[in-house]
C-alpha cells in the first residue's frame, strides 16, 4: 500500500458534461515537489471506498502547493470526491508512473492525442511545451469527446492555440446537438501532413490508444516515438 498524506479540497468546479475540476492543497505535506513529470498520477482514498488512480492535471512545479485533477462521474470514489465540501481532507499518495518524456520531443513536431478525461494527463504536457515553445516544432492536439458538451478545459483551448498549439476537436456521438465540427475518432483526422518524424503523446481508452498507434505506424511513426503515461 502507498504512504498516504492528507490534502485539502480548495476548489471544485464543473469542467464539462460529466467532468469536474478538483483542486487539492498539499502544502505542509511531503508531497510538495514530488510531481516531476507531466502525465504522472496519484492514488486517492476516502474512508470506506476503494482507492482510485487519477492523473495530475496541472504541470509539475518544484514548489507547487496545489494539484489539479479532472474527475469523471459515475463511479463511487469520484462521485464521493465531487460531493466533498471545501476544506475536506483527502488521502493522497505520492506521484507514480514515469509520465511523458517531453524532453525527447525537443527539435521535433509534437502530436498530442486525448479523449474524454484523458485530456487531464495531456494538459500538463501542453503547459510544459508552451513554457519552452521554441524548442519544439509544430504542436497539434487531437482532442476527442463523446458529445460537444464533454470537452473539458474549453476556456483554455484558445489560450493553447495562441501559445502555438493547434487544436483539432472531434465528436464521436454528436446526435441531434447541431455540432458542425469534425466527427469520428481522433486518429481519423491526421490529414496529409508529414508526421513520420513527430513524437506522439497519447492518453485515452485502450481502444483509442490502439487505433492511434495503428494510424501513426501506417504513417511512418516508429512505435518507440509514441508515448503513454504508464
What is this entry, summarized?
19% of the residues lie in helices and 30% in strands. By secondary structure, the chain is of the alpha/beta class.
List keywords for this structure.
230 residues; alpha/beta; Elongation Factor Tu (Ef-tu), domain 3; Rossmann fold; 2 domains; six-stranded antiparallel beta sheet; six-stranded parallel beta sheet; 19% helix; 30% strand; globular; NAD(P)H-flavin reductase; OxRdtase_FAD/NAD-bd
* Major sheet details: 6 strands, antiparallel
CATH topology of the largest domain: Rossmann fold
**SS-based structural class?**
alpha/beta
* E-strand count: 12
Q: Tell me, what's the shape?
A: globular
Distance between the termini: 18 Å
**Rg over C-alpha atoms, rounded to the nearest angstrom:** 18 Å
On the 0 to 100 scale, the average pLDDT is 95
CATH superfamily of the largest domain: Nucleotide-binding domain of ferredoxin-NADP reductase (FNR) module
Strand order of the largest sheet: 4-3-6-1-2-5
Strand residue content: 25-35%
- Extract low-pLDDT stretches: none
- CATH C-level name of the largest domain: Alpha Beta
Query: Percent helix among the residues?
Result: 10-25%
Number of domains: 2
Q: SSE string, helix = H, strand = E?
A: EEEEEHEEHEHEEEHE
The CATH architecture of the largest domain can be given as 3-Layer(aba) Sandwich
Please tally the helical runs, counting DSSP H or I stretches of 4 or more residues. Answer: 4
Protein name: NAD(P)H-flavin reductase
Pfam families: NAD_binding_1
GO molecular function: oxidoreductase activity
Domain FAD-binding FR-type: 2-102
Amino acid at each position: 500500500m502507498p504512504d498516504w498524506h492528507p490534502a485539502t479540497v480548495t476548489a471544485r468546479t464543473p469542467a464539462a458534461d460529466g467532468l469536474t475540476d478538483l483542486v487539492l492543497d498539499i502544502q505542509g505535506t511531503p508531497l510538495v515537489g514530488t510531481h516531476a513529470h507531466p502525465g504522472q498520477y496519484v492514488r486517492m482514498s476516502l474512508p470506506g471506498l476503494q482507492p482510485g488512480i487519477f492523473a495530475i492535471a496541472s504541470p509539475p512545479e518544484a514548489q507547487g502547493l496545489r494539484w489539479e485533477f479532472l474527475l469523471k462521474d459515475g463511479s463511487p470514489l469520484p462521485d464521493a470526491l465531487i460531493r466533498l465540501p471545501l476544506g475536506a481532507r483527502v488521502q493522497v499518495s505520492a506521484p507514480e508512473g514515469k509520465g511523458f518524456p517531453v524532453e525527447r520531443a525537443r527539435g521535433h513536431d509534437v502530436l498530442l492525442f486525448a479523449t474524454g478525461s484523458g485530456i487531464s494527463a495531456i494538459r500538463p504536457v501542453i503547459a510544459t511545451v508552451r513554457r519552452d515553445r521554441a524548442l519544439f516544432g509544430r504542436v497539434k492536439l487531437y482532442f476527442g469527446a463523446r458529445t460537444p458538451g464533454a470537452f473539458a478545459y474549453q476556456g483554455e483551448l484558445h489560450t493553447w492555440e495562441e501559445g502555438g498549439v493547434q487544436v483539432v476537436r472531434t465528436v464521436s456521438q454528436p446526435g441531434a446537438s447541431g455540432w458542425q465540427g469534425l466527427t469520428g475518432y481522433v486518429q481519423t483526422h491526421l490529414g496529409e501532413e508529414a508526421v513520420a518524424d513527430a513524437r506522439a503523446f497519447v492518453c485515452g481508452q485502450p481502444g483509442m490508444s490502439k487505433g492511434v498507434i495503428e494510424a501513426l505506424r501506417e504513417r511512418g511513426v516508429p512505435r518507440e516515438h509514441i508515448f503513454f503515461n504508464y
